[in-house]
Amino acid sequence: MSLQDDVADKLAREVLALVAETGDEDIVEDIKKVIGTSSTTLEEAYMTAVRVRRAEARAMALLDQKRRAGGD
Are 49 and 12 a contacting pair, CB within 8 Å? Predict the structure, then answer.
């Protein structure tokens, strides 16, 4: 990964953890705006990381559900 991707992924993980803790979805957009004022490239990488992490979480939840259903 590049430095940009590393930073974007770290931010995405931190933000999504805080969203899970607080329930405040606006945090994602707030951080996006702050990043975008300095680096649109990092902003795009951050939003990609957020989408990837969310997709991963949904996929893992489905896998867990399938595992539980298969164990019956």
Answer: yes
Amino acid symbol at 60: M
* SS3 state of residue 2: coil
Q: Which residues contact 3 (CB under 8 A, 6 or more apart)?
A: none
**Strand residue runs (E) in 1-72:** none
CA distance 19 to 53: 13
What's the CA gap between 20 and 43, in Å, rounded? Answer: 21
The model's pLDDT over 2-30, given as tens digits with 9 standing for 90+, comes to 999 999 999 999 999 999 999 999 999 99
List the domain boundaries for the chain. 3-70
- 15 Cβ contact list (under 8 Å, min separation 6): 27, 28, 31, 50
